[in-house]
Amino acid sequence: MEKFTTKRMTLLTGRTHPALANEVAANLGIELGDPGLIQFANGEIRTRFTESIRGSDVFIMQTHCGNDEQSINDSIMEQLIMIDTAYRASAKRITAVCPFYGYARQDRKAEGREPITARLVADLFKAAGAKRMVSIDLHSGQIQGFFDGPVDHLTAMPVLEDYVRTHADNPVIVSPDAGRIKVAERMAQHLNDKGADLAFIYKRRPKGTANVAEAKEVIGDVDGRLCILTDDMIDSGGTIVTAAELLMQRGAVEVWAMATHGVLSGPAIDRLKNAPLDRVVLTNTLPLPPEKQIDKIEVLSIAPIIAEAIDAVFEDTSVSEIFRGDNV
Fold first, then answer.
1. SS3 for 137?
2. Looking at the chain, which terminus has fewer C-beta neighbours within 10 angstroms, N or C?
3. Do 9-155+304-323 and 157-300 agree at the fold level?
4. Which of 131, 203, 216, 296 is catalytic?
């Protein structure tokens, strides 16, 4: 007796960013599965998938963020519950797709008696039943080692570079701190055909503070140039705004900011409105609510890259080839 097995893909999403998940599904040419999410009066979450996923290659997508109805912790817990549901429903393989990985900045002990929460979150996904993880532009590459299994670290660089190639000439790619120099340098190299140069800003964070950064000096020639600040995320906006102000003081004629993740918490929108920034270019790894949609913010879609990576995982082909090996 011969048996022929058919590979099946199932894509499910939580409630934090369904628009992105629907766009990814459209790029894959599939329908989103129904997780059957129910929230009880006391806040507890229950899922019951409406279709069988036995033997299916299941991708459970959730970007980690909060809104008026739930916190970032709720979004992580919701994804964990969905993963546990898939595990108990006999999924063949479960991949956690986290476009924005929560707690990524807590990846080391900067001072005594601090947690390494990025590792804790990775352990939770493993315990829930995830065998693989997909994320975009992690705050630091070492987080890949926190998860006990394969991690596909995607990058939004192709999307951002295409935007620069279309809209700018002879830019200076500026790293807002020393930690992002390698990423900025790689971007400048890829945009060499547009005459791109490289600069970076020396900054310091006062000990014992959070969301406070002081830009001190620009290393590189920015006089009379369009400067493009590139970072993995814009959270409160302090780093980007102080960097933009310093670049203008050093002779830049125009400053843009580009980031993968638009967290935009607290005073970020007011800061960006009043900052000497002509454009703020983000991707849609995180939802941008209407009250944060200001004129200078442009949002690019990351869905085609996520879809291509999911398809590569499903077909057991190379993910790194999508990015020419730059996704590290």
1. coil
2. N
3. yes
4. 203
CB contact at 8 A, 240 and 180: no
How much is the pLDDT for 179? 82
Query: What's this model's pTM, rounded to 2 decimal places?
Result: 0.93
Catalytic site includes residue 203: yes
- Residue 31, pLDDT > 70, answer yes
C-alpha count within 13 angstroms, C-beta hemisphere, residue 165 = 13
Both tokens of 106, joined, read 């807590």
Report the candidate in 22, 320, 281 with the shortest Cα–Cα distance to residue 159: 281
- Residue boundaries of the structural domains of the chain: 9-155+304-323, 157-300
Helix (H, G, I), strand (E, B) or coil at 280: strand
Phi-psi bin for 325: left (phi > 0), alpha (psi -120 to 50), beta? left
SS3 (DSSP) at 92: coil
CA 178 to CA 81: how far, in whole Å?
38
Fold topology of 157-300: Rossmann fold (3.40.50)
Q: Which residue has the higher pLDDT, 200 or 1?
A: 200
Spatial neighbors of 166 by CB under 8 A, at least 6 apart, are none
Q: What is the pLDDT of residue 95?
A: 98
One-letter amino acid at 321 equals: E
Main-chain phi, psi angles of 111, to 5 degrees? -140, 170
* pLDDT per position as a tens digit, 104-161: 999 999 899 999 999 999 999 999 999 999 999 999 989 999 999 999 999 999 999 9
> What is the residue-wise DSSP string for 143-203?
GGGGSSS-EEEE-SHHHHHHHHHHH-SS-EEEESSGGGHHHHHHHHHHTGGGT-EEEEEEE
